[in-house]
Specification:
387 residues; mainly alpha; 62% helix
Length: 387
């Protein structure tokens, strides 16, 4: 059974600690399937109407949007639903041919002009598409960063991939796009889009080039794109090369994120070996988290020791990943109930904190308990964020 097949049924768990972990463990690996997305939609359906604190919605971005998913979304638009903004954001990740196919239904959900602009890409020839992509890059360089525009640029490039404009005989152009960006003080948008292309086309020969980017830790957008591309390529060669960066304080974060999300046995081996060698508590904590995301049963006793003896709790709470990893792998541990109780208490605490903030906001806006909620769900405040 594949990693995804094993984990995705747990997205439907009634235990929210398990459900949220299961989705996170799959999402960042880029291995999620249509079924993963369907399960996520069902998990959202089970939650109360609150828009602002939905724990599932942010973790669907890397799941594939298919015709079946759009059918489900469209069915939900027709009934009263509180997640319209999320559905609209799904369209930014939907393949362009599906946007065209469902155009009439989707016009109700989003800005018609924006939808038409996306669909129009299909009717452009390659030259016009290159011009469009360059226009996006220039606009992003000149103006303030805009994520929707950044995604639109990726959509234009995907269209070019579909046209066969980025095949092995011009992979060298992609490599050149990255090396010329390396000579600039700040990595250009053009360079970042080329990193994206390496991941989309899984260009093994450019793995060393991508890995050399991991030291540019100040450039968030570039690092994120390089991490994603390396996870998408996801081979043992990537793992072997990335391991060299894991004990370096500056690059450890990125290296561990990549290794934790490539679901191969070699990844677990690397993490076990490195956890044993690590002396820095932050690195150990991150490696322990990555081992949970790999569902390593070998690691569970060691991570349980870390939980007892102390870990870097300023970056994450290891119980949030250790407890669900035990449940999914059906590994018993004498502390299991203690961990769950701790997680439930933390949850109740944060819920209280959040409710207090919502109440302050409502008061400042003059919204009473029986008025429509501050989050725009359409429910009464007392039944929604004020509950
Ligand atoms: Zn609300």
């Amino acid at each position: 059974m594949s990693f995804v097949e094993k984990v995705q049924p747990y997205i439907l768990s009634d235990d929210k600690h398990v459900s949220e972990f299961a989705l996170k463990a799959i999402e960042k690996s880029y291995l999620g399937t249509e079924q993963t997305f369907l399960n996520a939609l069902k998990a959202v359906d089970k939650l109360p109407a609150k828009i602002r604190s939905n724990p599932i919605i942010p973790f669907t971005r890397n799941l594939p949007v298919t015709a079946r998913i759009l059918d489900e979304v469209i069915a939900r638009i027709k009934v009263k639903d509180h997640n319209l903004a999320w559905y609209a954001s799904i369209l930014e990740y939907t393949p362009t041919d599906l946007l065209a196919k469902y155009q009439t239904e989707l016009e109700k959900l989003t800005n018609e002009k924006v939808l038409h602009q996306m669909i129009r890409l299909r009717s452009m020839d390659s030259e016009a598409l290159f011009t469009e992509a360059n226009g996006v890059m220039n606009a992003l360089e000149k103006r303030e960063y805009n994520h929707s525009l950044f995604l639109y640029g990726k959509r234009a490039l995907r269209e070019l991939i579909n046209r066969g404009e980025y095949e092995p005989d011009n992979f060298s152009n992609i490599g050149n796009g990255i090396t010329s960006a390396l000579n600039e003080e700040l990595f250009s948008l053009n360079g970042i889009y080329n990193v994206f292309l390496v991941g989309e086309q899984k260009i093994q020969s450019l793995v060393p080039t991508l890995i050399s980017l991991l030291v540019r830790t100040e450039e968030d957008l570039l690092i994120e794109e390089a991490i994603d591309a390396l996870i998408k390529i996801g081979t043992e060669e990537v793992l072997g090369e990335v391991e060299k960066y894991i004990q370096n304080e500056d690059t450890a974060f990125a290296a561990i994120e990549i290794i934790g999300n490539i679901k191969l046995p070699a990844a677990e081996e690397i993490l076990l070996r490195q956890l044993d060698n690590a002396s820095d508590q932050t690195a150990k904590t991150l490696m322990a988290e990555a081992l949970c995301l790999q569902l390593s049963t070998t690691a569970i006793p060691m991570i349980a020791d870390l939980v007892e003896d102390g870990f870097d709790d300023t970056i994450l709470d290891l119980r949030e990943v250790l407890y669900p990893a035990c449940i999914i792998t059906q590994t018993n541990h004498p502390k299991l109930e203690d961990w769950k109780q701790h997680l439930d208490e933390m949850d109740a605490y944060w819920k209280q904190q959040q409710k207090r903030l919502f109440e302050e906001e409502a008061t400042s806006k003059g919204i009473g308990r029986n008025d429509p909620c501050i989050c725009g769900s359409g429910e009464k405040f007392k039944n929604c964020c004020g509950a």
